[in-house]
Write a structure and sequence with these properties.
201 residues
Length: 201
């Protein structure tokens, strides 16, 4: 190992290289395809290096989920209100599909990992903060679950290409904003209603 490699190793470069390689594998083939030995080969490091940082496959997936929850918390915090937080949630899923796959599969993770628990709590706090801005909501917790279900469900359908026909060439984020009308007003404008509105304008 060169001095440059040793320096990179001690400063976390090797750890991140393995994580990045894992993200590529998951995005292409799913988490079931992960192998520490294969990741070492992809990252160009010794076969023992991933185990040094993550101990095992579960540790690696837990680290990826922790990273994902941190990124999600940052994305949600940047939005001013609940609807836009939902949009950021969908955007996060599209931009980080491998993280998204791993984060919500607890059977793959070390559930009591303190870093994972802290990152999940940061993301949850941002979700709750969005609901806190709502008025006339009798049960904030239920409203939060409803909002999360809508964003998570749409993001999942989007990633699995199950809403391709409904979307067509429409922007997924704009489509999601329309769907939130079902949550906030109980109404979703039909194409005919939209045309009438346009004619009146």
């Amino acid at each position: 190992m060169t001095s440059t490699s040793r320096s990179s190793y001690h400063h976390g470069g090797l750890r991140q290289a393995v994580l990045d390689a894992a993200l590529d594998v998951i995005a292409a083939e799913g988490p079931g395809a992960l192998s520490l030995r294969d990741l070492a080969r992809r990252a160009g490091v010794s076969h023992a290096a991933p185990a040094h940082h993550f101990k095992d496959r579960t540790g690696l997936l837990t680290a990826l989920a922790t990273e994902g929850y941190g990124l999600l918390a940052e994305a949600l915090a940047a939005a001013p209100e609940l609807r836009e937080r939902g949009v950021r949630y969908v955007r996060f899923a599209v931009e980080h599909p491998a993280h998204f796959q791993v984060m919500f599969q607890p059977e793959l993770l070390r559930a009591d990992d303190p870093d994972l628990l802290a990152a999940k709590e940061r993301a949850s706090a941002e979700l709750r903060a969005g609901v806190a801005g709502l008025t006339d909501v009798p049960d904030a917790r239920t409203a939060g679950i409803a909002a999360w279900s809508l964003a998570h469900g749409f993001a999942t359908l989007l990633l699995t290409q199950n809403v391709r026909g409904a979307l067509g060439d429409r922007d997924p984020e704009e489509y999601f904003r329309e769907l939130t009308g079902l949550l906030f007003t109980g109404q979703l404008p039909s194409e005919g209603q939209e045309e009438k509105t346009e004619r009146r304008e």
